[in-house]
Structure formats: C-alpha cells, structure tokens
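Researcher: Checking consistency across runs. Here is Rapamycin-insensitive companion of mTOR, N-term-domain-containing protein again:
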Amino acid sequence: MTVDRSFEAFQDVGSPTHVVLSSANSTTSNELDSVFDFSHLEGKDAGKQLAILNHMMGKAVSIKEGAEAVLNGNAAQLTDALRQQVQSELDTAEGRIEAISHRLEQHRRPVDDRDDFRTILQQARGHVRTLISLSRSVTSPTASQGTSTSPQATSLYDPETTRARIDAMTKLIGLLQRNLRVQYELDVVQVANAIIPALSKRSTQFSRATAYRLVRYMLVDTESVKRLHEQPLDWFVVRSLALDNKHTVEKEQVIKLIRAIVTIGSQNDSNRASCTGTVPLSERVMRAFIAVAEQLDDPFRFVAIQTLTEIMLIDIQCVAKAGGMRVLLQTLSEGPPALASLLNQAFLYIIDSPSTRKYFRPGKDLEIMLSGITDAYGKDSDHQQRLKDICRSIVCMLRTWSGFMYFCMDDMRAIRSLIDTLRIPSLEPREIVLDMFFELLNIKTPAWYNAFISGRRLTVYRKSRQVSEPNADVQQRQPEPLRLTDQYIALLVLVFTRAGLLEALTSMFQETTTGSNLSRKGTLLMAEVLQLANKVLPLSLAAKIQLVSEVFKLASDYKRGEHRIIGTSALSSIDSFNRNRTRLETAVVAAGNRPRANSVEDAIRRGQRQVEQVRIKMGLQMDDKTFQAALLETQVMLTKDHYKWNFETLQDLIEGPLLNPKRMEEAIKLSRFLRRLMNFFHPFSHRFSDIERNKTNMRWVKLGCTLLTTLLASPDGQRFLASEDDLLNQLTRSFAQLDPFNGTPESDPIFSKKRVSDTLTYGYLEMLGTLSKHKEGIELMEKARLFTAFYHLSELRSREDLIKGIIENIDYSIDGHPRIVLSKALTSSYKHIRLYATKHLGEMILHSPTANTWTLRLLLTQLYDPAMEVCQLATQFLEEACESVDILHSWLRCSQPWTTLGIFMSTPVGFRYLFDSGYIDREMDIWFHERNIHYVVEIEVWLAKTMEFIPVDERTIYSKSFDGVVPPHFFGEVAKTELGCQILHEKGHFPEFSLFIRQHGHEKEDPELILKLKSILWTVGNIGSSTGGLPFLEEEDIIPVILEIAEQSQVLSVRGTCFFVLGLISSTPQGAEILSDYGWEAHCPRSGFRRIPAWDPVPSYGEISSEIEVTTAISNLSNTVIAATASRHWPSSLKSRPEYQSVFSSVPVFYRALYMISTSRYRLPVRRYVFDLFDIDLDEDVLRTGASGSRAMPQQPNSRVVSVLFAAPRTHGSESDEEDDPHLDKLRPKSTIVGFTND
C-alpha cells in the first residue's frame, strides 16, 4: 500500500461515534487494524515513514479522546456491555500510542545522527550536481539548421527532466532549511547557473517558482547577493513580473526574492545621511517592479508598494531614478488609506533631511494630497470617505515638524488653500474639513456640543449640576506646568489665524441669515480658537486674534441689514458659548486647592447650604401628626410596588425627621416603616436587586446609601442593622454563592456578572462603601463576616469586575479591614488586579489634601512588584505626588529615596539626602554619557503618541498617559537647587554642552551627531527652565546660538527641538524677557522659524523624458505610415496632460521642433499642426534663446525606449528629401532596446 492509500485509510477513523460502533462492525475493526499496521513503513524513505507514524499517532490520540468522551459524558446511558467495549477500545488505543511512540523514538534517533552537517552538505552538493547535469545541453550533430532548437535542447524541458529538476530543487531547499550552515558552503553562482533552464519560458510555472525559491534560500549575506547580481537573471525576473494574474505562484516567489535581496543585500552607512544607502537591484528590475505597484488590479500591488517604500527609505536615488516616486505619490493621493498612512510617515521622514528633501519638487509633489479636498466641489457622496482619509493624512502631516514646515512654504500657500476650501459652497466636504481643524487643535467635543450646533438653547439643554454636592465647585485656574502639546497648538493657532481661518469662517456665516448646522459648527470652531488663543498665546498676540474684526464689521454694517443680523448672531452665539461653557462642563477640583471664595457660584452654594440646613431643622421639629401623615404619604406601608411610592417624600423623611432619635425609634418599633423599607433592599427579596440599571433608577442606590447613613446616626438604627435586619447577612450569603469552596454553586447568584452589569445589584457595593465610612459601619461589616467574603473574592480571577467595584467603593479613611482588603488586592496573584489597585491607590494619594504615611508605604511596596508595568505605574504616581513638599518629606521619612529617579532633587532636603549618599555623582555621569540620548528617544515617542494619537496597547491601559508635560530631566532637576547648581558648575559639563552646540548646530548629514545635538539641546533647555539654571545659559551666551539653529538649521526636526527648548527657557519670567529681547515672544517663534531654505529638486527622469517624448512624437509625424495616428493621439494627448504643458511652452523644445521640420520631410498640414502645438511667438529673442537652450537638452535617456519608428541616420546617400546633416545626428532621438547598452 502506498503512502497516499495509507492516508486514505485514516480519514474516518477515530471519532467517538466510530469508537462506539467499532464493536458492532467487524469491517470497521478490520480497518482499524490495517490503519495501525506497521508494515506500511516498509520500503518508504525516512520522511514518509515519519509522516505515516505521525498520522498514526494523531488517529490513536483521537480514538483515545473519543472513548474518554463517551465514558465521561454518557456513562449513565451506556449498557454494561457497551461500556466494556468502549473501555476495551480505550485500552487498545493507549497501547497503540505507546507502540507508536516507541517507533518514533527509534526512528528519529538514527535520523538525527545522520542529519549532521557533513551528511547534509554531501546531500546538498549531490542535488547541485544533479541540477548541473540536467542543465547541460549538447548540440546534436544531426540537428537541422532550419530548426530553432535542437532535439537535445528540447529534452531539457521535457516532462521527465522538468520533474527531476523540480524534485532536486525541492530537496535542496529542504536541506537548506534544516541546516543553515550549508548555505554558506554552497556556491550561489554555481546554483544560479544550474537553475537557469528552470527559469525558461518553456519550463512550467511551478518550476520557475521553485527556482526563485531556491535562489532566495541561497542568499545569506551581502557578498552572496553581490555575486548573484553579476549573473544574467535580471531578464527572467523582469519577465516573471510582467506575467498576468494566472501566474500568481511564480510572481509571489519572485517578489519574495526581491524582498530578500533588499533585506540581505542593502548597505546603509550609519554615519551618512538617511536614505542614502545602496540597494542591489538593477534599473530594469526596479522598473518592472514599479509597474507591478502601478497596476491597480495586480494582486501583489500592495506588497510592491510597501517594498518600494522600504527601498526608498534605504536608497531613495534608486527609486527616483526608476520613476518610482511618481507611483508612490499617486498612491499617497489616491489610497488605499492603510498604504497612504505608511507613505505619509515615510515621506515626512524624507522631508526632514536636506539630502533627501531634494527629491521632492517644492509646491508640487506632497501637495498632491490636497487636490482631494480642493477638488471636492460637486463630487458625489462616495467621495466623502476618501475625503475623510485625506483629512486624516493631513492631520498626521501637520502634527510633525516636517509636514508643518513644508506646508508653511511659499507664505503658507498649502495651508491657505486648505482653509479656502471652507469658502466652497458644498456642505459635506466643508463639514469634514471643520472636523479636521477640531482634531488638529485637539478640541474635545462633549455631548452638549450637538445641542449648540443644532441651535438649541444651552441654558435648557441640561440642568446645572447639584450645587449641594461637595465636589461641584469650580476649579480655580492656577498656573499650569509647561506642556509641549500646548506649545505646538499655540503655533498651529497662530499659523491658522494668520492664514485666514477666522476670515474663512466669517464667510461661511454670510451664506444664510437664519443660520445652519454648518454655520453654527463654524461658530463653535471660532469660539474654541478664541479660547485657545487666550489660553496658549501671549497676551499681545491673543488680543489681536480676539478682535475678530470681520465679524464686528458685519455686526456694525447698518447699510446692509442681513450683514448686521449675521454679525450680531455670530457674536451672540460666541458670547452664549463662553458664558455657558463653565457651567456645562464637568469641573474637577484639583487636589489640595481650596475653591474660590469670590466665584459666581459661591453665593449659590451658600444659599443652597442654608436651604438644606433649614429643611433639616424643620424635619427634626416635625410633630407626631405630621410625621405619621408623611409615613402614610410615602405609600411604603400600603404597597410593595416601589413604582407607587412617593420618592420625594421618602427622601425628605430619611434626610430629615429620621435623623431625630425619637422618630427613628418610632419608625422601627411602632409603625414597622423601616422593616418594610429595608425589606425592599434585601437581595433575596429580588426587588431592589432586580431593578434595571439605568440613569433614572440610580436614585434608588443613592436612597439606600442615605438610609444607611441615617441608621448609623442613632443607636437605635445601629441596633436595628445589627440584630433585627437581615440585609448584611443576606449580602454575606450572596457573596458566598461565588465562593467555589462553599458547596454547590448557584445557577443564578445575586452577584453574577450579568446582574451586576444590568441591574442595581452593583448598588450594594456603594452601600457597603457608605458603611465603611463610619466606625460603627465597619464593626457591623465585621460582625456579618463581609470582609472575609472580600478576602475570598480577591482570589477569583473570573470576577475582576466585582473586585474592582469593591476596591473603588470601599472607604479607607479608618484603619482596619478596609486597608487590609486594599493591601491584599495590591499583592494579588493576578497582574491586572494589581494594576487597577495601584492606579486607585495613586489617585487616592494625588487627591488627598494631606500626606498619609500608610498610602505611601503601600505604594512603596508596588515598586518591588514582579511586573514592570506595576513598577512603572507606581513610579509615575510617586513622581507626581512628590511635587507636594509635605508628601515628599513623608516619603523621605518612610523609604529609601533612590528607589525612584530624581523625584527628590527639586527640594533642598531631598537633594542633600541624595548627594550625601553618592547618588548625584553616579547619576550625573550616567546621564552625561548615555541617558541624555535615551531621554530624546523617549520624549519623541511620547510626543508622537500624543500628537498623532497612536493607538494605546492594551497592556498599557492602566499606565498614566503622557499629558504633554515635559518629563523630568536629571540636569533640570539638579539646576533647581542652589547646591545642584554648585555641583553642575564644578563638574564643568555645561561648557562642553555649549561647545558642542556651537560646533555641530548646523549638522545635516550624520544621524548620530544630529541625535546627540538634540539630546544636548534638551539638556540645556531643562537647565534653563529654572531660575537657578538660567545663569548658565547667560554666561555661555548660548541662547542666540539656539535661536540661530531654530531659524537656519536644514534639519526640520532639529528646528522643532529648538522650538520646544526655547519654550522651556521662556517658562521663567527672566527667560521670557531674554527671548523677548531677541524678538521671540514667549513660545511663539519669529517668521524665520517656519521658512525652509530653498532647494533645487533633483531632475527626475520624468522631467527629462517629457521633452524627449514630445520631440519623439513630433518626429513620428514625418513618417507617412503612422503620421495620421500620431497626429490624432501623440502630441495633442501629451499637451492635454498637466505634466507636459510646460514642455509646449519651452523655447528650446520649440527650437528643436523647428530644426526637425527644417531637416525632414513634413507635409504642409503637419507643419501647420506643429506650429499650433506651441504657445510661443516666434521672434528674435525666442530664436536666440532656443539656439543656446537646445544644445543642453538630453540626447538619450538611460536604457529607455524612445522611438522604434524613428530610424537611425544613414551613412550613405539617400533618395529621400532629407539631407544628411552632422548636427541632426546629435539632435535626433535614438532608438534603443531596454537593458542593452551600445557597447
């Protein structure tokens, strides 16, 4: 039996059904015996024997698992006889598994012994000799001279030879995969010559694909790629790339070969500028590969574009020379979005350096993406998605220094074009552009924005927050730390307003007097821009923007009533937005900040508190008759249906009269009011716990918390909870339902995931949190053994939601079991629980007005957590918390300060402590030699994530995100104290920093020097951001040098670094004053900062070929055979294309055409046609310019077909009307064949 037949015997054996039926079916039993017959292994090679044994093992394991499933799943339904049969099958399967395992062990040992290097190398060389013998072609002496191929040559491609060649190549590939050392011993040239017949057109597709695959496995280093490049394989690659979609197997392998050549053979010097390496691909292969990337329906187009992008980042000249830049730019403009995003990042990287920037034509190439927006007028709805993708690409570009400064060229022409699209009367495209500006300026859009846009009054959209809440105070605006994101947004606001954004928005208002959603959205954007300008720009610049002169002109235009209506409506909307913004947005009081006493809301808060106090006093003084009437009015005594209860009266009773001990006793003993009410909250009554969880029903949770607080306020209420009511005991039993060691689990426990997420069951956690705020409540929870239930729950991995709810709701202000629960969560065996508990602990520390030693000690424990994410999160919270002097001193008393980096150096106490321990000297040396470089990489990655909205990995979901504040720098922290400045002066590092900046400030080639320059700039900026460190900059007079680099450096990212560094320096009043003397106001740069030095673009092949193709088309008009076709299609079609329009206005090309019609035979209509093609007046100046310019025109492109119809000049006499002219030979385009030179 062959291997294939053996495999067929395995197909339907081994399922559980087969196991059960095998005893009743003798045929099936016989099949089983034949399947596991080891005689099948005889006469097979090692590979096939291993395959058969592995398949046997798989079937035996399937039979074993099926038998076990039958015995375990249907044990009660099986008869004794059938159970014995299934057990017998199980025992047999186990015996077969043991026998097969023994065979596999015996079989693999000699194979492993034989698979040593020498044996595999000998086998590989044997396969190579086989390929060489199969590739030999001996010319038959009897071959007919009239035939194109000899019989011997034909035998190279007969089916038997082809199969033998494929078999040899496949085996050789297998050997190369098994032992990589063999690749270094074989000669790639020998293998390449041996597989040339396999690449022939007469070979099969699979043969060619296998040959390409073999060549790919032969490439091991740069030398092997170089030797392969010397072999005549390029034309085979070109032909394979030109095949249609029926040859996908072959094209896939040849593309993989090209990618291997790029990966292995590319050379890139780290000391040279980026994108200036070498890729060992010939121009002919590059052009064929570019054609694949250009073909829209090719299945490998996306892979080809990605590979071209990689090649461009290594050797941009190779791609530009082959004409690939045009294809990549077209993909950037037309999509798809995934590739456009990739190309966007690549192009931005190229623009940053002057050595690669020259491959772009300023004002033409990258602006191609703007055409999707500027040409959007009149497009259908299908264009909207493409427009959104383009806007996302533009946002990405404008959030990088390269893209921002590129778009600011030519007096911000690109940005002005983008803003001018808001004036186009097409609704949907403009709304997308408005959304783009919202995203660019990082403007968040809360839900109430929709009410503003739809025209509803903000005063009735949402009720004001309950001012009786203790945390509802409005935050006082305090001086904020310098944020890099705010610096960049300030620059964007400044540029957009100067480019006419406010004027464009004003023009939108004038379209209608009644207003529309689009115009109101424009009003909202204008209001936000004014708010941003007031927040991030200096006062002098912000005041100019606040003028909105165009809007005020409309409002004061008394001659045209509609203008006045539009202007006043816009101003009224902006004013309404500003007045209601603070009220509508949820404000959070900063930790430790006292609410303002002079705020507008302060009087309201005092009045509300007075009303609450009066209401409580009236409730406490309520007489018996009124109290009984109030109890009846609640309907609690009359019905169990809570929907019929009077909630307002019930709430007033709990918050007022029941605070009186007398009324509480009466409600418990006489009227049984509280018993009925508490029964509603019992879990097993399924009343409160079954209510749907929504915003309306949230009031019942709040009522339960208030009720528990009222009960704890009196001894009778405490006694009632402890002995008479069963709420806490039922909660304990409900938690016990989740304990796997507490007997049989319930099918629908009270605290199931579904009930906690969909019902008010989650409210029990808030009610327990209310109890934990009081000492008496904690005692009641201890008596009910609720904390024991919490300890058990902390070990459940499947109830992460419940553990997080307990951690979040329990109050930790009283020492005892609550803190133990938190400590147990911080040391949980599950990392995600420890992360959440650490995050909650850190937020508790930040929001606590005083320093608590116990919280700091717990956070100290997290620094030693085995998970790096937990340690990093704890370190971040410590660094932020230690900004408070009280917390810093508490931390110094309870820990060793070197557990975190530099969080103590900002205060004299902490710095002295670290200096005495020797920490400062060690850390300063580390930062001077290496950590400065790491700081640059870290901050640039953070900025990229913040400004480009890189998706956050799920593993970092609990980590504190970069909020734009400058990360702490060691030298910056040192400069904050007097002792630190003294040490920095003694070390002498700052003069070295200044010297390096002066020497390499304008470096534009060496990437390592540029990176080090950035690191030193950041160091100098952090030192200058403090009052003590600024004198270092003044002594070295380094600020003018940084300003010069910011305006004249040809590396755009270095300019951006200088921008941020100057912002750091301006963070102190003294630094801002110094920069102001140089014309740099705060962090708003001078106009020279945005000006990129002009560059001459590298002449692309397209520009040269356009002139050649035009002259070729005109020359074809002299051929009487194709003149008619040429006149209809060639010149006219070229002239209609934008890239050729400049050619028909070129005087040298016009002079060339004149010379051609003067030296060749052209009919009169053709001559008239040629003159009409050019938009040039023939005069003396044109002739003089043309005579000199025609000599500089390229005569022949490199390896490119110009015209196969224009014959070469004859060296003998001609009977035609043409005259032999030596000058004509130089001017006439030559005919060449691609890939061959004239040698």
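Researcher: Does this match what you'd expect to see?
Model: One thing to look at in this run: The chain has a mean pLDDT of 75.
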